[in-house]
Hints:
Layout: E1 8-13, E2 16-20, H1 28-39, E3 44-50, E4 55-60, H2 67-83, H3 92-109, H4 111-134, H5 142-146, H6 148-176, H7 184-201
Antiparallel strand pairs: 1-2, 2-4, 3-4
Amino acid sequence: MAIQKEFVLRYRHDGHVRFQVPAQACQPTAANLISTKLAAINGVQSVKLYRGQGKLSIRYDGAVCGFTSLAAQLFQILAELEQQGYFDSKPLAEKAKKSVLGIKKRLKGTRIGGWFSDKYQAGKETVQAAKIIGKVSTKGPKALFKDPEKATIDFLNDVLVLYLIKTHWTRITQEWLVKPIVHRYEWMAVFYMFFLLVRSRRPK
Length: 204
């Protein structure tokens, strides 16, 4: 499709023309390229592309660049940009994705949306912490029948460690990992806690 056909001449006077332009030409990148290339034409004095209104206004020196020459160069610029894909419509999936992201962003700004966001984040942190605990968890229901007291203590230890990790997860990922030397005492406490946890699992 030749996009030049969608540029409709709305006004023409000595040294000034105005076109109605399609939505594809009002996309940020395309609009900027059109304006820049037109402004580089010898004799063009000013170029204004009003993206919201879909209007292109060009003022030029008729003695240097006549209307026919200006129109020909404009159409050549449009043909080159069209070949390069600057006027391709964005996929519907991308538009839908941006729409969903916009809705999520607006919801997050509300009081209820912020509450749900916090709960969702807390749930993610709990799952991540549970994965860590899972690496040192009990060896299945057999442990409960073999030694109920030890299995119960191990389970309670798991719950405690899970709670501590969940409570400090934001600090661990955003502060302790970033500056391990500054938070060396916190890391020492973490290592000691895991040492005690692993030691409690060792067979007697």
